[in-house]
Amino acid sequence: MTISKKGFGLAVIGSQWGDEGKGKIVHTLAEQSDLVVRFQGGHNAGHTVVTDGRKFKLHLVPSGVIAGKRSLIGAGVVIDPRALKREIEELAANGIRITPRVLGIDYRASIIMPWHPALDEAREKRGAMFGAAVAAAKKSAAGVIGTTKRGIGPAYEDRAARVGLVFADLIDATTLREKVFALHHYEQRVLHSLHCGLAESPERIYAEYATLGREFALFACDAASEASDAVSGGARVLFEGAQGTFLDVSFGTYPFVTSSNTIAGGACVGAGVPPRAITRVEGVAKAYTTRVGNGPFPTELFDAIGRHLQEKGAEIGTSTGRRRRCGWLDATMLRRAHQLNGFDGLHLTKLDVLDGLRELKIAVAHEVHGKQVREFPIGVRDALRARPVYETLRGFANVDWKKVVREGKKKGFGALPSEALAYVRRIEALAGVPVISVSVGPRREDIVFAKN
Ligand code: GDP
Ligand code: IMO
Ligand code: MG
Questions:
Q1: Which residues line ligand 2 (CB under 6 A)?
Q2: Among the CATH numbers 2.60.120.260, 1.10.300.10, 3.40.50.280, 3.40.50.620, which is that of 110-220?
Q3: Does the global pTM surpass 0.85?
Q4: In ligand 1, which atom is closest to the CA atom of 47?
């Protein structure tokens, strides 16, 4: 495949534990794109777009739809048809009509069935399955991993076990019937072994899902070939990542991760495009760190600064409404994220949230077993024990961010207060990646781009 000079495939990837502001950045970039593709995850994602005085929360539907761009749900995504219907209805109530012209769904995307969230919840309750690592982790009321309980993990398991349903099955009543009846019986036995069960009968599930299948049939498409052809034909394609690098099932803080490959390589396998179709990779990083759910978080803060970040940053999960854990920026994470994704540039978001802090800290290394390491620890046990080594920079306060945005149009980062600029430049140096935009508010326009 050759890629014309004009065409590009730009992957936008979270570089921490999700919620970095990908929705906002994708929406901003979508204006100059022709097609937006989601390639992994499911409705565990919550991407916020604030534009023209309105706020949209997207879970499964790519953020491109807000800008009216054709958007695809790729084969690597797990779709809960009930959640998709709800989301389409909410978007319609908000003035965004999702028609088959706007949205395409790959025939090969996996389907989340009612037993998947039931299994997710049962496992989270059961607890001690991961032994000592989990015992050392802080347990929340949410369960062991602290999943979104949306059935994401069990649906990916079924895909790997080759017993799951795909979108083509959902829209074909005969296959749907066969699979629902066979699987219901099996899944019910598994659930019983975990001391729970499904209240819904196979007849009811089949009837409801067959109706959903009929409603969604017109969205079916070969998203992989559409996306590949678009890039090779000179179109501008955005690949919208969900979750973040440290939630990647292979390279994240396993087992406290999601069940898909969230890193840039995941865009190829999830969307079904050749590696060369991804011509550029941009990371999204919050100016500090947050995490929802359990697992290691060396720079987590439990003091007044943590509360400042939580409150000023309105750090409440978009999907589950849980409070996000907050802490200082960890440059060792950004370095690892760059290694894994090969960022061409970083979008740094929520810089405004740091306004009012006297000093700012960045973790530049970690102390593990009495030794300093410059890398984020690979094993979960080490990551749980890691003690961050900080560098301290001067903070900034009472910044007129509107003025920064106004002046930023001409001056680029020159419009930032000197302390904020020093913070951005230090992040660039530590991560080894240029910062290409700094976001200073939730709205689409609250952004300053670097001047070339
Ligand atoms: P995503 O999952 O990566 O798309 O991020 P979320 O939408 O879950 O979380 C990011 C939150 O921060 C949302 O509420 C956004 O509206 C908000 N946000 C994005 N960028 C900024 C920013 O620069 N400043 C502030 N204050 N809020 C922002
Ligand atoms: P966006 O796309 C933040 C977290 C959950 C849990 C772990 C596993 O909005 O950045 P799962 O339900 O996926 O099996 O849960 O992953 N998680 C996210 N955290 N942002 C997300 O998505 C997340 N999606 C999953 O909290 O710790
Ligand atoms: Mg989110």
A1: 14, 17-19, 44-47, 145-148, 150, 152-153, 242-244, 247, 258-259, 292-293, 318
A2: 1.10.300.10
A3: yes
A4: 4
